[in-house]
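Hi everyone, sorry if this is the wrong subforum. Our group has a chain we'd like a structural model of before ordering constructs, and none of us has done structure prediction before. Sequence below.
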Amino acid sequence: MPVLLALHFNYEHFQDIRHALERVTPRMLASRLGELHDLGAVNKQLIEQPRPSFLYRLHCHVDKPINQLAANLQSIL
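Answer:
Right subforum, don't worry. Here is the predicted structure as tokens:
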């Protein structure tokens, strides 16, 4: 769930997601992103410039439930 919420808040690059989640190891994050991609929850896009890297984004069918979850979490803060 934390990875999905980070993506919801527009952290799209691996390092940005990692820094947003603070305690996640690179290996754990790579594993979770791979699992979410395999499940069809996350899109992984290769960007070639300025250097090859990937962008991660929520798949459109996951965006609405994660948006609702984020709103619910914000309402209890």
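For your construct planning: Residues 42 and 58 are 5 Å apart (CA to CA). The beta strands are 42-47, 53-58.
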